[in-house]
Amino acid sequence: MSLAQQEPAAINPRNPHGLGDPNDTTLRKVEREVLIPKIMRDRARSELCPKEVADFEECCKASSIFMVATCRKQNSALMDCLSRWYKNEAFKEECKAIYLQERAEYRSTGIPKKNRVEKI
C-alpha cells in the first residue's frame, strides 16, 4: 500500500492534536523556569505595579542618558514592588494555573493563544 492509501491513524482522545494530554499538569523545566516567570513578570508589571512602572518610565524619558543616576529611587521602588510579587507563593500558583489553562486549551484545540479569537 502507498502512503495515500493508508487509513488515517486513530485519534487518541487524551492527545487529540498530537500536542500532548490537555489534562496533564506536569511541568517541564523550561515551563517552570521561563514561561511561568514570564507570566508573573507581565502580570506584575501591568496589573500589580502599574504606578511604579509609569513613574520609572516617565523618569527615564525625562532624563534620557542620565537615567542611571537620576532614576535610582523610581527603579528601586519598581524592583521592590516586582520582587514582592515574585516571592509571593499564592501569586506564583495563580500564574501557574493560568499557564496550565492556556496550555490545556492549546493542546485540546491545536490553536495558539495569539490566533484564538473569542466569539461574542
Q: Keywords, please?
A:
mainly alpha, 120 residues, elongated
Q: How would you describe what is shown here?
A:
- The protein is mainly alpha-helical and 120 residues long.
- It has a domain at 29-108.
- Helix content is 62%, strand content 0%.
- It is built from 5 helices and no strands.
- It has helices at 29-48, 50-63, 67-70, 72-86, 89-109.
- α2 runs antiparallel to α4 (72-86).
- The longest helix is centred in the last third of the chain and has 21 residues, at 89-109.
- The protein is elongated, with a radius of gyration of 21 Å.
- Pfam families: Cmc1 (PF08583).
- This is COX assembly mitochondrial protein.
Can you count the helices? Answer: 5
Q: Specify the biggest β-sheet.
A: none
Taken as a percent bin, the fraction of beta residues is under 5%
| Cα radius of gyration in angstroms | 21 Å
Terminal CA distance reads 47 Å
Unreliable spans:
none
Q: Helicity range of the residues? A: 55-70%
* Global shape: elongated
- Mean pLDDT level: 84
* Helix and strand element order: HHHHH
Q: Which structural class is indicated by helix and strand composition?
A: mainly alpha
- Please give the number of β-strands: 0
Task: Annotate the secondary structure layout.
Layout lengths: L28 H20 L1 H14 L3 H4 L1 H15 L2 H21 L11
Summed up:
This protein is mostly helical. The protein has helices at 29-48, 50-63, 67-70, 72-86, 89-109. Helix content is 62%, strand content 0%.
